[in-house]
Structure formats: C-alpha cells, structure tokens
Amino acid sequence: MKKLCVVFRRGPHGTAHGREALDLAMLAASFDLEVSLLFCDEGVLHLLQDQNPEHIGCRDYISTFKALPFYDVEIQLVCKQSLVDYGLNKNGLNKNGLSGELQILDSEAITAHLQSVDEVVVY
C-alpha cells in the first residue's frame, strides 16, 4: 500500500489551502492510500478550539475533519517546535474530530516519518 503524507503548513482561514489539503487526504484515502496528516508551522492553528471562521466571512471546513475516521485516516502528527513557536501545548489543542491520538514529534521524528512515506504533499 502506498503511503501519502499531507502537510498542513498554512493557517486554516483566508486561503483555500487547508480545505484543499483536507480534500486531498480524503480522496487519497478513498483510493486505499495510507494517509497521514502533519500539522506544522501555521498549520498547527487548524487544531485550535472554538474557531468561528464565519465571523471573517470564511466557511467552516475544519468541521470536515470529523469525516476522516470514515476514511481510516488515523495518523495525525504535530510538530513540537511549531507548538512552542505559537505558545501552544497538547492540552490546548482540539482534535476537531480527528480519530486516534495526536502525536507530538520533534524534527528528527518528522524527518523519519517523511522518509518513510512514498509521497509528500505540502499545503
């Protein structure tokens, strides 16, 4: 089985990148690829609680993360340094419907994961 890692590097609202990354993850999983998600840089902001994108005129695609368990997308990785950079910790994160445990990884573990997959797509 081929493995794909979808990397969320940009913030959740204001651009279509997050929605496109989520759509790609679900589409790839529906074709029996093993999909992992990596949240780093601004991408960790996807995991913040109580987001109200309607207030800035954006659609709430983050609620779509709840569909990922139906596609067997169970590997969710979070960059430890990005959490530090944004003053976040694991307790302040909302899984937004993600199944499984959020794995907090350092840069070496992230590198190892990226080397273990067949394709990496960065948004």
TrEMBL record:
SUPFAM superfamilies: DsrEFH-like. It comes from the Bacteria. Pfam families: DsrE. InterPro entries: DsrEFH-like, Sulphur_relay_DsrE/F-like, Sulphur_relay_TusC/DsrF. PANTHER family: PROTEIN TUSC. Belongs to the DsrF/TusC family. NCBIfam families: PRK00211.1, sulf_tusC_dsrF. This is Sulfurtransferase complex subunit TusC. It comes from Shewanella sedimentimangrovi.
